[in-house]
Amino acid sequence: MKKSLFSDQVKKQLIPWLLPILILIIWQLLSSKGILSTKILPVPSDVVMAGVELIRSGELFQHLLISFKRAIIGFLIGGSIGLFLGLINGLFPIADRIFDTTIQMVRNIPHLAMIPLVILWFGIGEEAKVFLVAAGVLFPIYVNTLHGIRSVDQGLIEMGRVYGLRSWLLFWQVVLPGALPSILVGVRYALGIMWLTLIVAETISADSGIGYMAMNAREFMQTDVVLLSILLYALFGKIADSMAKWLERKCLNWNPNYQNL
Amino acid sequence: MESPTFGTYLQINGVEKHFGNQHVLRGIDLEVQPGEFVAIIGRSGCGKSTLLRLIAGLDEPTAGEIKANSELMKGLNPEVRIMFQDARLLPWKRVIQNVAIGMKKEDLPKAELALKQVGLIDRAKEWPHVLSGGQKQRVALARALASKPRLLLLDEPLGALDALTRIEMQRLIERLWKEQGFTALLITHDVEEAVAMADRVVLIEDGKIAMDTPIKFPRPRQRGNAAFAALVEKILRRVMGEEENTPAVYARQST
Ligand SMILES: Nc1ncnc2c1ncn2[C@@H]1O[C@H](COP(=O)(O)OP(=O)(O)OP(=O)(O)O)[C@@H](O)[C@H]1O
Ligand SMILES: [Mg+2]
């Protein structure tokens, strides 16, 4: 009885992986038989080998580190600015009057369209990538913070005032927690934009990072390294998303909607 | 029992409140003695909540003045607590933290005591969303009383509860009111509730106090008794604006 339950569990866990494994096997067979040209798609085993080789030379780690650094610094800068602007515009109508229209206009410029300008300003230095990432994450966080603050239940704010909460305490105990679910939606969305921006920026203008590694490999027709880079981006996207989910579960543990994720 | 003058002495003189050209309150005069329990009734939209918000200081009257303990009110009145129809608990705070809202850390025992008084101390560590509607209102009551207010405003706090829980809550509020001696203003749609709990029932109609009836029945009040029922019927008829001789049964059914 117990044993069948266990194997049921294992089966359930395994089923989603069957299809990817099958595809990998077929792919491996097709490539190694020469039916699929390695110029189009490398043999899966070659991708693994390329990865092992890059790890051994230390090159992979170097590129990873620099990409991470750009992503995190850009995210922190853009995120803080977005959060700050969202908070003051949400809290003070006068700030909203002054800033919102301008922010909405700038928001409508696709930040990737600024790449040529950014290259002119910063060359292909670090600032260019950090700037683009920051510009990309700023707006989703701004918009969701503002929306979060505006949609805090007025009844709760009124209650807080009657129960003696003034300015700072009211913000800390009522307004911010009320806006947090929306802010975290912004964070999650911004994490996606962060990777996307970094991929594009590193692919177009860089001399280091995962995107550069991919472009460099393309010049030497190393499809295995190109594919490896793409897989790495996918992996980091997934990790970032899991982190955002974890943050939501941690910060919103009071909310029944987030308890069983 | 607290000293007889613990509760707020409330004076409302010629208070008006307009929203644009809608004149909701057109000259309210009301005096409430310290420790008195006054019930306010009136049709939906007659301005009961509006009056309560003015007394709490959440809003300012267009004209007239409100005095608490003979002093003109300015801004939010710190000795007032409101109990709302919806409990308005903060979903991100545990029950005990909700009760202790706005209190200093060292006052936590007061919050615990209040929670004990409403019989929910064993739920102190739970999130509000797991509580039933009636339990949420009891937590809200504990929160209102934890800081020992001198004036408690109740805006239909029992409207959403089932009949049984309602009567339980009425008794609880009455008991705590007797123990603590605060002044209480209760808005209600339920005339029977008003007569069961209040020292006085006040009717707001056309923006003015249209009726002010003292309730002299001794406490604890027996609802079944004929005099009680007759008074409820009489007030109900007055609220409905019916002639004295119309049978109130019809009035009730037509609502
Ligand atoms: N902030 C406001 N702006 C405009 N009109 C308002 C505002 N607040 C209340 N009113 C109006 O004032 C009138 C009285 O509202 P109020 O909430 O005081 O009624 P009430 O007697 O409490 O009704 P109910 O028994 O249904 O709760 C209503 O017509 C309402 O539309
Ligand atoms: Mg109301």
From TrEMBL, chain A:
<keyword id="KW-1133">Transmembrane helix</keyword>
<comment type="similarity">
    <text>Belongs to the binding-protein-dependent transport system permease family.</text>
</comment>
<protein>
    <submittedName>
        <fullName>Aliphatic sulfonate ABC transporter permease SsuC</fullName>
    </submittedName>
</protein>
<feature type="transmembrane region" description="Helical">
    <location>
        <begin position="130"/>
        <end position="149"/>
    </location>
</feature>
<dbReference type="InterPro" id="IPR000515">
    <property type="entry name" value="MetI-like"/>
</dbReference>
<feature type="transmembrane region" description="Helical">
    <location>
        <begin position="71"/>
        <end position="94"/>
    </location>
</feature>
<dbReference type="InterPro" id="IPR035906">
    <property type="entry name" value="MetI-like_sf"/>
</dbReference>
<keyword id="KW-0813">Transport</keyword>
<feature type="transmembrane region" description="Helical">
    <location>
        <begin position="106"/>
        <end position="124"/>
    </location>
</feature>
<feature type="transmembrane region" description="Helical">
    <location>
        <begin position="170"/>
        <end position="200"/>
    </location>
</feature>
<feature type="domain" description="ABC transmembrane type-1">
    <location>
        <begin position="64"/>
        <end position="244"/>
    </location>
</feature>
<keyword id="KW-0472">Membrane</keyword>
<dbReference type="Pfam" id="PF00528">
    <property type="entry name" value="BPD_transp_1"/>
</dbReference>
<keyword id="KW-0812">Transmembrane</keyword>
<feature type="transmembrane region" description="Helical">
    <location>
        <begin position="12"/>
        <end position="30"/>
    </location>
</feature>
<keyword id="KW-1003">Cell membrane</keyword>
<feature type="transmembrane region" description="Helical">
    <location>
        <begin position="220"/>
        <end position="240"/>
    </location>
</feature>
